[in-house]
UniProtKB/TrEMBL annotation:
GO MF annotation list: dioxygenase activity; metal ion binding; oxidoreductase activity, acting on paired donors, with incorporation or reduction of molecular oxygen
Domain Fe2OG dioxygenase residues, every copy: 193-294
Domain of life: Eukaryota
UniProt family annotation: Belongs to the iron/ascorbate-dependent oxidoreductase family.
SUPFAM superfamilies named in the record: Clavaminate synthase-like (SSF51197)
Name the UniProt record assigns to this protein: Protein DMR6-LIKE OXYGENASE 2 like
Keywords, alphabetical: Iron, Metal-binding, Oxidoreductase
């Protein structure tokens, strides 16, 4: 990480402004009804998921079917990877031509997040538009870069991703049902998915009250399924009053949040909620988000079945997911001091 002095100065702008509450955390949902044929229990589960998406945009799941040893393997591989020397990690550093791999923190308004990251795509290669220009039809292929150490790193990552992807499909189907749609309504969008997995490492921070692991943001994709360790630090903006609520670590649970795409598909019924990550001076922290995203050519727009000509007119114009990603990547790489592209840019003005 950088010098404390410069981090200190940068962090001034970055400092959290609201008090944090631990009470009334995000809902905890037990997915075990999925293993039964008890249709009443499944209906209750669907209703719980719908309420959580509507009221919080965030929830935790237990009895989710992801084997614990699979999670432990990737957690251990991640710890070994990040605690290597910078020289070793830099062998898989991402670049403009190869955007997957290792890097330290994203920049938001010229302030760097207090973290290190390793990204890889699930589908190899993953196709995305070469540029954000609407008329440029050229595509580029994303490949992964794998470190040599630890030796089981790649296998641990790929095994884990297969499992979290299965869980993501289950969640997607529950969300679809909760909107009154057929379970597999969304599945077609994920045939050539652009999903990726991220390993986050938040080192100890000497000025924790002045820096953030990740500044406030919303996730742009469809769904995020996150494993956090026992340190804690993730905070979610409560919809009812805008307070930052800490997500207490629950052993072997996954934290799920709906991203911007589900907000648009649901025509704002399920909003993508802001969240951020605090750092601390005593403990380093690890987390693993799986970003479940559709094919680049997906035109994201409110689902017709949820619309009518009266109360429920479409609140968004259709936009191309791949171009959206390309525009985001461009501003991240160039470290432009401009606002990222956001879904509200596609909001219809008459709504
Ligand atoms: C993210 C994110 C939360 C965490 O990477 O988008 O919100 O706990 N991470 O690391
Ligand atoms: Ni996030």
């Amino acid at each position: 990480m950088g010098e404390v002095d410069s981090a200190f100065i940068q962090a001034i702008e970055h400092r959290p402004k609201l008090a944090v509450t631990e009470a009334d955390g995000i809902p905890l949902i037990d997915l075990s009804p999925l293993n039964s044929s008890d249709s009443k229990a499944i209906a209750r589960l669907v209703a719980e998921i719908g309420d959580a998406c509507k009221n919080w945009g965030f929830f935790q799941v237990i009895n989710h079917g992801v084997p614990l040893d699979c999670r432990e393997k990737i957690e251990s591989a991640s710890r070994t990877f990040f605690t290597q020397s910078l020289e070793e990690k830099s062998k898989v550093r991402r670049g403009e031509l190869s955007p997957m791999g290792y890097y330290d923190g994203e920049h938001t308004k010229n302030v760097r997040d207090w973290k290190e990251v390793f990204d890889f795509v699930v589908e190899v290669p993953t196709l995305i538009p070469a540029s954000h220009e609407p008329d440029d039809k050229e595509l580029k292929m994303l490949h992964n870069q794998w470190p040599l150490y630890p030796p089981n790193f790649r296998e641990a990552c790929e095994d884990y991703t297969r499992e979290t992807e299965k869980l993501s499909y289950k969640l997607l189907e529950l969300i679809s049902l909760s909107l009154g749609l057929p379970a597999k309504r969304f599945n077609e969008f994920f045939k050539d998915k652009t999903s990726f997995l991220r390993l986050n490492y938040y080192p100890r921070c000497p000025v924790p009250h002045l820096a953030l692991g990740v500044g406030r943001h919303k996730d742009a994709g469809a769904l995020t399924v996150l494993a956090q360790d026992d340190v804690g630090g993730l905070e979610v903006k409560r919809k009812t009053d805008g307070e930052w609520i800490r997500v207490k670590p629950t052993p072997n649970a996954y934290i799920v949040n709906v991203g911007d795409i589900i907000q648009v598909w649901s025509n704002d019924k399920y909003e993508s909620v802001e969240h951020r990550v605090m750092v601390n001076s005593e403990k380093e922290r690890f987390s693993i988000p799986f970003f479940f995203n559709p094919a680049h050519y997906t035109m994201v727009e409110p689902l017709k079945e949820l619309l009518d000509d009266h109360q429920n007119r479409a609140k968004y114009k259709a936009f191309n997911w791949g171009k959206f990603v390309a525009a985001r990547n461009l501003s991240n790489f160039k470290k432009l001091d401009v606002e990222n592209i956001q879904i509200y840019h596609f909001r219809k003005s008459d709504q």
